[in-house]
Amino acid sequence: MTTTAITGRIDAARLEALAARIQAADPDAVQDVTNAMTGGVLGRVPHCSPDDVAAASRRARSVQKAWAGRSVEQRAAVLMRFHDLVLARQEEVLDLIQLENGKARRHAFEEILDVCLAARYYANTAADCLRPKRRRGAQLALTKVWELHHPKGLVGVISPWNYPLTLGISDALPAIVAGNAVLTKPDAQTPYAALWAVELLEEAGMQPGLVQVVTGSGAELGTPIIENSDFLMFTGSTAVGRTVASQAGEHLIDCSMELGGKNALLVLDDADVDKAVAGAVRACFSNTGQLCISMERIYVPGVLWDEFTTKFAAATRAMTLSPALDYSADMGSLVSQKQLYTVTRHVDDAVAKGATVLVGGKARPDLGPYFYEPTILTGVDDTMEVYAHETFGPLVSLYRVEDEDEAIARANDSEYGLNFSVWTADEQHGYRVAARLEAGTVNVNDAYAAAWGSMDAPMGGMKASGIGRRHGEHGILKYTESQTIAVERLLPVGVPDGMNPALYARVASLALRLLKRVPGIK
């Protein structure tokens, strides 16, 4: 392939400058980064080796102690300055995201929102989350107890290609403000947005070298990243997640993982159909369907089936597909030939086994090499690959159900439980249904952004959709080692010197019975 002309605010020199932030021993070991809009070469970055990972970890650790020695308020101030820089320079990174990933600009902007929300949230809450906290002692006033939180040390982050800025840096922000260094490997297809973010963090005052970026294949670098880290944050497929969790366990390091999903949207029989249709379009086709929390299954009651399917089909047909680096497109490109192949295979397999294409169902090479139409299927059953397997593309299957009990049962009949969506005119009704769904997040009258954007609440998956949580206090405390310090005064916990053990047992038993009756005693 020849290098394709780069448009927008990015030129070859800028990409080379970003790539130069990666330190690799072999200057001739490089890999191409594809322009997802054209299929040509966008740029080149180093192809790092396991030795490069080890060297990067040493560089990060060499500055981590000094960084942890800063006050949490000083570290938080860096995140707030970073927040402002991202907003001020968003046009450049929006171009980067679109070029390396292919998504529409409106969906690229969601990454700006996410990074700024995460930076602001942890800048404002880190001090409270990390401050020493008094805990109730074993002997009430006689035992003084504190809970402390120390940084883990070096946090490894392995991120996918679908949200190169969000997943490339947002998980690192709470790790940084907690006093850790970070060793991050963005996906080989989308390295530039993460490099851009690290550059801005250092400009905002982060210790230079604290965040080290390595690029290369996950199969080659995943193991050395785990071996050199004190904690691992992984976002990716469930299959790879099982391997990552096993390797982390072997090295006795903790991990947090957001994995696959086969997310379901439930239209209840009291829903406003027009609002549900608009929500379903966002839920299914944002980011070209390449979103861990997007919807691939929709359950519609018979009473609303005809109206919903007709309106949803019309809204989907009306979507604008374009490679433009502006806000004119409703949907952009898939990221690669591999993703295009997966979507095509799922559609072709379903049609061959009796499913009906209601809308879409075709690639669009006239727009770009990896474009595929937003597609709706009906008549899908469990003989088809699309029924239970994640597509990760602009493809959704509609299912007719008799009532909400059937919809809930079918939504829960999956190995996955990441993010579900419920549409209803009665929010209390929606809350009750949501509480019966086996998913880490459930959005009522929203596609995914309400739960994801609520940074104070935990986000993660049930079942095979992951372990651990991001966001909220969970999202920062997981990057710390908790320590309990207990100071005992006057009397020991146990038999005092000189006291008969039998007498102590009777006195202690009486005290336990009495304390059981005292309000507020835990």
How is this structure best described in words?
The strands form 5 sheets. The protein has a 7-stranded mixed β-sheet, with helices on both faces. Strand 10, helix 11 and strand 11 form a beta-alpha-beta unit. It is globular, with a radius of gyration of 26 Å. It contains 19 helices and 20 strands.
- Sketch the major β-sheet: 7 strands, mixed
> Please, how many helices?
19
What level of helicity do the residues show?
A: 40-55%
Strand content: 15-25%
What does the overall shape look like? Answer: globular
Features:
522 residues; 7-stranded mixed beta sheet; 6-stranded mixed beta sheet; 19 helices
Note the topology.
Layout: H1 12-19, E1 30-34, E2 41-46, H2 50-69, H3 72-88, H4 90-101, H5 105-130, E3 133-135, E4 143-151, E5 154-158, H6 166-170, H7 172-177, E6 181-185, H8 192-203, E7 211-213, H9 218-228, E8 231-235, H10 238-250, E9 254-258, E10 263-267, H11 273-285, E11 295-301, H12 302-317, H13 337-352, E12 356-359, E13 375-378, H14 385-388, E14 395-401, H15 404-412, E15 416-417, E16 419-423, H16 427-435, E17 441-444, H17 449-453, E18 462-463, E19 466-467, H18 474-477, E20 480-488, H19 501-516
Parallel strand pairs: 5-6, 5-8, 6-7, 8-9, 10-11, 10-16, 11-14, 13-14, 16-17
Antiparallel strand pairs: 1-2, 3-4, 4-20, 9-19, 12-13, 15-18
Helix pairs in contact: 2-9, 3-5, 3-8, 4-5, 11-12
